Amino acid sequence: MYHQCNLKEGLEQGDLKRLVTSHIGIDNYKSKMGDDADILVINFVVEGKDPAKDLMTFIERGYDFVLDADISSGEDDEGRWLVFVEMERSRLRPKQIMRLIDDILNLTDQKLDDWTFNYHKDSIKYPLNLENLEEQVPLSPKLYRERFGDKEMDQLKENARVPMKKKTVSNYYTDIIRVAAGLK
Q1: CATH code for the domain in which residue 139 is found
Q2: CA geometry: angle 149, 151, 155, nearest 5 deg
Q3: Are strands 80-88 and 68-71 parallel, antiparallel or unpaired?
Q4: CA–CA separation, 66 and 60 (whole Å)
């Protein structure tokens, strides 16, 4: 059971046992540090506010590749708190995420084989390992934009009634029509 006192000396092995779920979300939430194409957001689910604060502090102070760590402003319907971790998108991130998880495993007494993740709004839970992270997570702003484009920005512009050029599909048939119309 989690101790109600604040841990000033830092966390030790097993201090977060049964308090951190063995599933993380990646890019399920928007970055507060910058553009989503540039910043990767990982979220952990934690039982209780104090354990969430302890995990946040542990992550924020222990890793130079972490830009920011924060907890949710409130608990969810089940009384759990989210811990958000932001880092720049980079090809180095899968190894660094695995290093972070490995350290968290020491705090939770869990096994890596039990951990999963989902990417973005995908409901598929992938086993958490280096290969799956490298395959599922866009590791550069360019790859992120290729995958998601500017759909969100276009939606914001449309909602604000900002005039936009409509993007059209370019294929054999549309190219013929453009040529016939003198547009190409």
Answers
A1: 3.30.70
A2: 160
A3: antiparallel
A4: 6
In a domain, 96, yes or no: yes
CB atoms < 10 A from the CB of 29, how many? 15
- The per-residue pLDDT for range 85-109, each reduced to its tens digit, is 999 999 999 999 999 999 999 999 9
**Which residue range forms the structural domain that includes residue 117?**
20-149
Q: What is the number of residues in the chain?
A: 184
Q: Using CA atoms, how far apart are residues 103 and 74, in angstroms rounded to an integer?
A: 26
Which residue, chain included where needed, has tokens 């993007």? 167
CB 136 within 8 A of CB 123: no
What is the spatial distance between Cα 11 and Cα 58, in angstroms, rounded to a whole number?
7
Indicate the pairing of strand 80-88 with strand 20-26. Answer: unpaired
Q: Which residues contact 25 (CB under 8 A, 6 or more apart)?
A: 42, 43, 117, 118
Torsion on CA atoms 114, 68, 86, 46, rounded to nearest 10: 30
Structure tokens at 47: 């039982």
The pTM assigned to this predicted structure is 0.75
